[in-house]
Write a structure and sequence with these properties.
The protein has about 110 residues and is α+β, with helices and mostly antiparallel strands. The model has no long low-confidence stretch (mean pLDDT about 95). A hairpin with a 3-residue loop joins β2 and β3. About 25% of the residues lie in helices and about 40% in strands.
Amino acid sequence: YMERARTEWLSSLGFELVDLERLFGIVFVVHHVEIAYRRPARLGEEVDATLTLVELHRARMVVVQNVARDDIVLTSARVTLACLDRSNWRPMRIPAALHGRLESLL
């Protein structure tokens, strides 16, 4: 759920993952996760996954994500995402247009 929430979040900001890769040659990968499983989700239940940007650097960002059912948080995580050059898998600056948009969220 969290992966999908991140993809949809970037899309809502006007940045599709496929376009970031094609136009800028970058990919985002999960570098580190701190996660707490608080309560179980059951098969078939409807849950909501949320995301809040809490840190932004040149080549990485940190988000806090929750998965909840109604108003009950089932899982919470702090996720560090690294921006990598897709050709060599080395850190690369987040493109200026995206970085600027992300700065406005802090």
